[in-house]
């Protein structure tokens, strides 16, 4: 089972909160580099 299909299954099962969680995680993890790393 590939990672993308696993993520898709999680998204289908749990709905939009997974998407918002991933977006929030990526923003917290990488967003500060773009905001303060210049």
Structure description:
With 38 residues, this protein is mainly alpha-helical. The model has no long low-confidence stretch (mean pLDDT 77). The chain has one domain (3-36). 87% of the residues lie in helices and 0% in strands. The longest helix has 21 residues, at 16-36. It starts with a helix and ends with a helix. Keywords: Membrane, Transmembrane, Transmembrane helix. The chain crosses the membrane at residues 6-28.
Helix/strand class: mainly alpha
What percent of the residues sit in helical stretches (DSSP H or I)?
A: over 70%
Q: How would you characterize the largest beta sheet?
A: none
Total domains: 1
> Which word captures the global form?
elongated
Number of helices: 2
| Residue share in β-strands | under 5%
Transmembrane segments: 6-28
Keywords: Membrane, Transmembrane, Transmembrane helix
